[in-house]
């Protein structure tokens, strides 16, 4: 039997409905914030990711699906979409003054070669927001508030928001030197031993043991005055909006392009396990320039759709129901079947949700099917009824059965709705 690739998922039934419902809830919030959709390709050049996330990042280093097309060009399935959106901003000249600040969002599948487990797949879906063209604390606040708004409107409460001001430029070099000197004398895991040279800050994000980093020098001691002021202002705006944020000096993002404020929203529910990060993001003021565009600041975040759905399930929150049919038709003969086609056409035109069995079934199993569909009405059409220009409608809630003339069917169904 052919099977889906490891780490992928077929989404159907209730889950597909939940995906759709979640997307609609988020889209409505995006409208309120005047954030517009962008759709970029699912595959991009390999170079886009190696230049943005960085060769030393886990994503590029060991998680990317890379392939060559028939002309030998090196491509990659996108592991994330900030790089793709930034590329699109440059390629479509969206950086022009009249478009700024540019506020965009996206939905779509991402691909990472990771060890599959609940909440961690090789193909998964992200929703993300990217802002370009204004470096301001109020834009940074708008960004994180939009993320919090999504969680709140879903009814999710059990989470913490962590933020940090990620050091950059000369100060970063200084701090990295201090870190290297400290790490050399520490007992680090094998991955981190490699990270000391490749991606020093990333060592702070080690999932194996955090406790050992308690005594190392704090990042904020190396921030410049301006950076510290920026971070303080950010915090005070959020405070005024009653948003409680935990400052976390060890919060570093795995990707090279982050500069300045970074944040993560983490579920406190134990069942989420090590897949507890619901969304994450931050500021990236040099990404566009590094990809060959003009100097253009940016900030964004990405949210894991599957992880949100798991969090909703854990919190017992349902966001969608399978649609309930208004009518399910059971034709009892070939003629009745033909009549059913026109009847369905008429019902649907009037906005009623209606269906029939299409396959020949016994009356009993047809009723069973109707029950499983939770239809409000069953319409039974037999040869005798056809001759007499009526059908039998059984209301599944009151269980009453009535003969209804053809021309009265619509009124009858609409009236009782
Ligand atoms: P993690 O630390 O959990 O690996 P990350 O830092 O790699 O997350 P980001 O690159 O920031 O994740 O992606 C943003 C969000 O996308 C994550 O917070 C998470 O909700 C989701 N996500 C990331 N990788 C996966 C995956 N393999 N499967 C499902 N969701 C994922
Ligand atoms: Mg990861």
Summarize this structure as a short list of keywords or feature phrases:
single chain, 417 residues, alpha+beta, BirA Bifunctional Protein, domain 2, Rossmann fold, 2 domains, eight-stranded mixed sheet, five-stranded mixed sheet, 14 helices, 21% strand, elongated, binds adenosine-5'-triphosphate, binds magnesium ion
Your description of this structure?
This protein is of the alpha+beta class and 417 residues long. It has 14 helices and 16 strands. The strands form three sheets. The protein has an eight-stranded mixed beta sheet with strand order 1-5-6-11-10-9-7-8. The protein is elongated and about 90 Å long. The protein starts with 12 loop residues before the first helix and ends with a helix. The relative contact order is 0.12. The site of adenosine-5'-triphosphate has 18 residues, from strand 6, strand 10, strand 11 and helix 10.
Binned strand content: 15-25%
Each distinct ligand: adenosine-5'-triphosphate, magnesium ion
* Intertermini distance: 46 Å
Question: According to CATH, what is the class of the largest domain?
Answer: Alpha Beta
Q: Any idea what the radius of gyration is?
A: 28 Å
């Amino acid at each position: 039997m052919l099977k889906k690739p490891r780490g992928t998922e077929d989404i159907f039934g209730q889950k597909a409905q939940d995906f759709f419902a979640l997307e609609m809830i988020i889209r409505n919030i995006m409208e309120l914030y005047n954030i517009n959709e962008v759709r970029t390709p699912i595959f991009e050049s390999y170079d886009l990711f190696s230049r943005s996330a960085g060769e030393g990042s886990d994503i590029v280093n060991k998680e990317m699906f890379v392939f060559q097309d028939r002309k030998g060009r090196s491509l990659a399935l996108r592991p994330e979409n900030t790089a793709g959106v930034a590329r699109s901003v440059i390629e479509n000249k969206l950086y022009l003054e009249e478009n700024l600040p540019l506020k965009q969002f996206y939905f779509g599948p991402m691909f990472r070669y990771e060890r599959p487990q609940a909440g961690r797949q090789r193909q998964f879906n992200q929703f993300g927001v990217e802002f370009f063209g204004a470096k301001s604390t109020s834009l940074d606040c708008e960004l994180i508030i939009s993320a919090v708004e999504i969680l709140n409107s879903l009814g999710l409460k059990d989470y913490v928001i962590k933020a940090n001001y990620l050091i950059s430029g000369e100060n970063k070099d200084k701090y990295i030197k201090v870190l290297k000197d400290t790490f050399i004398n520490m007992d680090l895991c094998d991955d981190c031993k490699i990270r000391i040279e490749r991606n020093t800050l990333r060592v702070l994000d080690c999932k194996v043991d955090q406790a050992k980093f308690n005594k190392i020098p704090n990042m904020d001691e190396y921030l410049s005055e301006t950076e510290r002021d920026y971070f303080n202002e950010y915090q005070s705006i959020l405070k005024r909006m009653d948003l409680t944020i935990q400052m976390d000096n060890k919060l570093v993002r795995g990707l090279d392009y982050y500069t300045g404020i970074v944040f993560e929203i983490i579920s406190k529910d134990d069942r989420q396990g090590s897949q507890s990060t619901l969304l994450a993001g931050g500021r990236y003021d040099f990404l566009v320039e590094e990809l060959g565009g003009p100097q253009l600041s940016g900030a964004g975040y990405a949210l894991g759709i599957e992880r949100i759905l798991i969090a909703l399930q854990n919190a017992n929150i349902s966001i969608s129901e399978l649609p309930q049919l208004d009518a399910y038709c059971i034709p009892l003969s070939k003629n009745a079947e033909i009549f059913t086609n026109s009847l369905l056409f008429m019902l649907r035109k009037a906005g009623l949700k209606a269906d029939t069995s299409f396959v020949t079934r016994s009356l009993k199993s047809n009723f069973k099917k109707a029950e499983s569909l939770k239809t409000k009405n069953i319409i039974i059409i037999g040869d005798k009824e056809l001759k007499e220009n009526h059908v039998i409608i059984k209301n599944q809630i009151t269980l009453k059965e009535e003969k209804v003339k053809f021309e009265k069917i619509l009124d009858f169904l609409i009236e009782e709705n």
